[in-house]
Specification:
The chain is an alpha+beta fold. The chain folds into two domains: about 30 residues; about 130 residues, 7 Propeller (Methylamine Dehydrogenase, Chain H), CATH 2.130.10.10. It is built from one helix and eleven strands, in the order αβββββββββββ. The strands form three sheets. It has a four-stranded antiparallel beta sheet, with no helix packed on it. Strand 9 and strand 10 form a beta hairpin. About 5% of the residues have low confidence.
């Protein structure tokens, strides 16, 4: 019985060490993982959010990639450990993509130029219970629609902002 416990303890220690080494290699080698990926409606582009593996927390990078290539244009880096991106959505004509930052505001990117064209606050930052969710473009692509949700009351309202 004692030898079984010793083997189990050693196995657990080896597994934990292997996991720690894998994370250490990612952190020190500049590795990243994709946390959001959204293909464009026309299939030519993909918007992605990559989390650079760093010790101090999330470090998200917004990017546009041409489908079928390894070419990636990093559009903007978010403030490490202070900003994060949870959603990306495309305009119906694939000309623009909007990224939802901190569940509060959006960054809109022109896909062909890979440049920021707008940054719009969706919910007030001083109201901590209010968050934006379910980001989407209107059918004509002139507005971004979203659900403004009060996490304390459990209710949501559909809102929109012009671009």
């Amino acid at each position: 019985m004692r030898s079984v416990r010793i083997r189990a303890t050693l196995t657990l220690a080896i597994v934990c060490a292997a996991v720690a080494c894998a994370f250490a290699v990612g952190f020190t080698s500049g590795g990243s993982r994709i946390v959001v990926r959204a293909p464009s409606p026309d299939g030519r582009w993909a918007a992605s959010v990559r989390d650079r593996l760093e010790l101090d927390g999330p470090h998200h990078v917004l990017a546009i990639e041409a489908t079928g290539t390894r070419s990636r244009l990093e559009v903007t880096e978010l403030a490490p450990d202070m900003q994060w991106c949870t959603e990306a959505t495309w305009a119906p004509d694939s000309s623009h993509v909007a990224f939802l930052i901190n569940n509060q505001h959006i960054v809109v990117i022109d896909a062909s130029a890979a440049s920021k064209v707008a940054e719009v606050e969706l919910v007030r930052r001083d109201v901590s219970s209010l968050v934006a969710r379910r980001l989407r473009f209107s059918t004509d692509g002139r507005r971004v629609e979203y659900d403004a949700c009060d996490t304390q009351q459990g209710s949501c309202d559909v809102r929109q902002v012009p671009l």
